[in-house]
Amino acid sequence: MHAKSMKQSTLKQKVTLIGVGLHSGTKVRCTLHPAPAHHGIVFVRSDLRSIPHIKADITKVTRTDMCTTLGTEGASVATVEHLMAACAGLGIDNAAVELSAGEVPIMDGSSREFVDAILEAGIRQLPAARKVLRLRRAVSVRYGDKRIEALPSRKFAVKGSISFGHRLIGDQIFRYSVSAGTDESTATSFVRELASARTFGFLREVEFLHKKGLALGGSLDNAIVLDEERVLNPEGLRFKNEFVRHKVLDAIGDLALLGMPIEASIEVHKSGHELHAAFLRKVLSDQENYEIVELGRERAVSSAEEFAPAFAHAY
Ligand SMILES: [Zn+2]
Predict the structure, then answer these.
(1) pLDDT digits (tens, 9 = 90+) for 203-253
(2) What are phi and psi for residue 237, nearest 5 degrees?
(3) pTM above 0.85, yes or no
């Protein structure tokens, strides 16, 4: 999403991942297919008779508790954020994501396996200019002590911070910024710094959720789990500050629901999916906040042309 290549891209060929759904605990098959320019990332529920297509777009967000869920006309797709982050981090603008269930498999709780699959399939540039959303003025959203603040910038940067009363987490800050010129260099930073940071939870919450029949697929295979004292995963942490890195990864995945990279310097503090969605809606609610630019032409595309139809009903 923060890649600076002028052209859009997709996968060279299809690639399939099989994993469990975090919510259902059942096996989910997920195939990423190449797609043409201007297609965007679109989820396809091939398990349903009407084969609904659900575009990865902020206007399709229906739930933000525990994960980001998209929906349309009775069909939904949950837990899209780590796959969206992988696409954004590698500069994939267009793909059809075929699913055998209503959720993206959780894999190892990070973006790593999606990244590996996309790199295995290969990335193909398309002969169409990439559009970006360039922030024109500061936009922020606060819920109590949670906040997200964005400033105009020609670089893409996310500074994440968290504060937990657990001795292994405490206060953590991580700054991710992309200034280099190509998708390849952006992808390298993303893969090295963020892609393998896993989601996390506390044992007491996991036990509570399982009792309620929720997060049935959640296990030490797809999340860092902590008790009061320590990390229960035998392999330990992948980074000392894996927790805040994962929060930055989540922000990147949710911000990708703009459907194009955003040019802004963003700070997220104790943030989550709900706040990310509220932020995107706020940015798009006022056309003075942004312009849409075609890279290589540096021509502002009318923001009204881009978003007014989709948002007319939302506001
Ligand atoms: Zn996450």
Answers:
(1) 998 888 889 888 899 999 999 999 999 999 999 999 999 999 999 999 999
(2) -90, 155
(3) yes
Contact (CB, 8 A) for 128 and 43: no
Which pLDDT tens digit goes with each residue over 67-89?
999 999 889 999 999 999 999 99
Compute how many other C-beta atoms are within 10 angstroms of the C-beta atom of residue 209: 17
CA of 127 to the centre of ligand 1 (A): 32
Q: How far is ligand 1, taken at its centre, from the CA of residue 165, in Å?
A: 20
How far from 220 is each of 30, 107, 291, CA to CA, in Å?
A: 21, 11, 43
Domain 7-312 has CATH 3.30.1700.10: yes
Which residues are known to be catalytic?
A: 273
Provide the residue type at 275 as one letter: L
Using the mean position of ligand 1's atoms as its centre, give its distance from the Cα of residue 272 in Å: 9
312 CA distance to ligand 1 middle (Å): 30
* Domain boundaries of the chain, sorted by first residue: 7-312
Residue 254's identity, in one-letter code, is D
- Count of Cβ atoms closer than 10 Å to residue 298 Cβ: 8
Residue 226 makes CB contacts below 8 A (sequence gap 6+) with 166, 168, 169, 200, 201, 202, 203, 232
User: Given the DSSP bridges, would you call strands 123-129 and 7-11 parallel, antiparallel or unpaired?
Assistant: antiparallel
Tell me what pLDDT residue 274 has. 97
